[in-house]
Design a protein that fits this description.
The protein is mostly helical. 76% of the residues lie in helices and 0% in strands. Helix 5 packs across helix 9. It is flat and about 70 Å long. The two termini are 47 Å apart.
């Protein structure tokens, strides 16, 4: 074997070793990140199966035997039924969250489609205005928003928690970026030649092609609306428990001085988190698809 072949083989071996080392370091790093993210969730689930005394004694990674007892305490105890009605909370939060999520992803996709497909005057200005609105914190406009809702008689209704979801600048920005890299304009021209209407083109061609981006934003919108405590706490001023959302009920449990059963409290929190975990499990595969398709340039 010549010296040049030996050197080439040595270089290939060294390069392969570097790749394996880099892959091992990345795997270890992401494993640590996964543990950091999942450990609090796992501890919450474990504590939902333990009683108050066991939780006070310290952290444990081994599930307890009081899952059913904690569930009965949360759903049947009069102390908890006074401020926590899990089924009413599920109904209210699900109605608000599903409606707001559908409006967010549909109208954001429609706006992003219009910005991507059509050329019109002040197109750049309109897009920049959307980005500027994204920079405004919700806390800045909350006082005026509540005052306006009060004037038009929408306090203690769900409409102020649903209709504003139509305007979601961050989602529009994400979908616009996605369409720039993964939505060819030629397919729109082909649909027009075939006699397809503009709105039908959006529904039957654009939406299926944007499915990964829509699914990703649906997950984020669902989580944000389900966990939203700030806006409902300003709008839903009613004292009726059956009209409140789950985050409002969980806040009431945390603020209560009479409810000291940590096992039941963790069970209430676990019941609140459960729908988010289910939705994520069903839609999480689209995140990978979205990243893969977003990297393919036109």
């Amino acid at each position: 074997m010549s010296s040049q072949a030996v050197k080439s083989s040595s270089k290939d071996s060294s390069y392969s070793l570097k790749i394996k080392l880099k892959s091992g370091v990345l795997f270890l790093w992401f494993l640590i990140l996964a543990i950091i993210c999942l450990l609090p969730l796992y501890i919450m689930i474990v504590n939902a199966t333990r009683n108050h005394t066991e939780i006070v004694q310290g952290v444990s990674l081994i599930p307890g035997k009081d899952l059913v007892e904690n569930f009965k305490t949360v759903t049947d105890s009069q102390d908890y039924l006074y401020i926590f009605d899990v089924w009413a909370g599920y109904r209210n939060s699900a109605f608000i969250t599903i409606c707001a999520t559908v409006l967010t992803v549909f109208f954001s996709a429609l706006t992003a489609y219009g910005i991507r497909v059509y050329d019109f005057k002040l197109k750049t200005v309109a897009y920049n205005v959307i980005l500027l609105v994204m920079m405004v914190p919700v806390q800045v406009t909350s006082a005026g928003f509540v005052n306006f809702m009060n004037k038009i008689g929408l306090i203690n209704t769900y409409w102020p928690l649903i209709l504003p979801a139509i305007a979601a600048p961050a989602v529009v920005y994400f979908m616009s970026s996605y369409m720039k890299s993964s939505f060819p304009l030629d397919i729109v021209e082909a649909a027009r030649i075939d006699g397809c209407s503009e709105f039908r083109t959006f529904l039957q061609i654009a939406i299926p092609m944007m499915k990964p981006a829509i699914a990703v934003q649906a997950i984020f919108a669902f989580v944000a609306n389900w966990n939203n405590f700030y806006t409902p706490n300003m709008i839903l001023l009613t004292s009726k428990l059956k009209e409140k959302t789950l985050p409002m009920m969980i806040s009431a449990i945390g603020a209560s001085d009479t409810l000291n059963d940590y096992g039941a409290k963790y069970m209430a929190i676990a019941l609140t988190v459960l729908p988010i975990a289910i939705v994520y499990l069903f839609l999480s595969r689209f995140i990978i698809d979205g990243v893969a398709l977003g990297g393919v340039k036109e």
